[in-house]
Amino acid sequence: MNNPEDRARPSSRAMLLQWLGTAAGSRKWPLEPKESIVIGRDEDCDIVLDNRLVSRAHAEIFWRDGEYFIRDLGSKNGTSVNGQPLVYEKRLQDGDEVQVALRYKLAFAGEDATADLAWEGELHGISINPELRTASVNGVPVELSLRQFRLLHVLWQAGGSVVTRSQIKQAVWPEAEPDGISRQSIDALVRRMRLTLLELDASTDRIVTVRHHGYRLVGD
């Protein structure tokens, strides 16, 4: 006979995923059904985020009545869930995005998730999550249209190799007729993407034109 308490506890699938915001790369923290899981800068925290923007004890995830909740612990730079600042405690649901201070974005994967949330690494300061359609530059989230995201993603996937205009056309406008997108439309989209990236980091023009070939991403 099953123990009722076992049914109330989540499986080991419940976790936080760090998928944006640090040069250290992505990390996973499996969550245990315990009363308090503290996120903060202090080394005694359950989840340590070592950055001065993070308070020593910044936020707390806790287990109550068979579900996970989160609350801010009076941090200086705040905690938000799905873009909404935490004022009171909030129940976490699968796929929720938790932002800690201005530096870290975490994703909550609940025990009922059918698959782990996906992420990809960092290239030239650019981090991309194709499943959530999010991107950041040096840890700063960037708002992109669908076409801009597709463009950045195909350049990112090339790992610094040249991406031709034909490849960009197929990635950005997959539903269009072969001759339905002009070279001028592609170049205009690239210009807008280049300006967007420069607004976040004016020190580096990350998209360069390779004459007679296409475009590629470059680093510092």
Question: What report would you give on this structure?
Answer:
- The termini are far apart.
- The strands form four sheets. A six-stranded antiparallel sheet has the order 2-1-11-10-7-8, with no helix packed on it. It has a five-stranded mixed sheet with strand order 4-3-5-6-9, with no helix packed on it.
- It is built from four helices and 18 strands.
- It has 220 residues and is of the alpha+beta class.
- It has two domains: 14-109, Tumour Suppressor Smad4, CATH 2.60.200.20; 126-217, Arc Repressor Mutant, subunit A.
Strand residues, percent? 25-35%
CATH topology of the largest domain: Tumour Suppressor Smad4
- Strand ordering within the main sheet: 2-1-11-10-7-8
Number of helices: 4
Average of the residue pLDDT scores: 80
Corresponding CATH architecture of the largest domain: Sandwich
| Content-based structural category | alpha+beta
List the helices and strands and how they pair.
Elements: H1 4-8, E1 15-20, E2 27-30, E3 37-40, E4 47-48, E5 59-64, E6 67-72, E7 79-81, E8 84-85, E9 90-91, E10 97-100, E11 104-109, E12 122-123, E13 126-129, E14 134-137, E15 140-141, H2 146-157, E16 163-164, H3 165-172, H4 183-200, E17 207-210, E18 214-217
Parallel strand pairs: 3-4
Antiparallel strand pairs: 1-2, 1-11, 3-5, 5-6, 6-9, 7-8, 7-10, 10-11, 12-13, 13-14, 14-15, 16-18, 17-18
Question: What features would you highlight for this structure?
Answer:
DNA binding, 2 domains, Arc Repressor Mutant, subunit A, FHA_dom, 4 helices, 220 residues, FHA domain-containing protein, 6-stranded antiparallel sheet
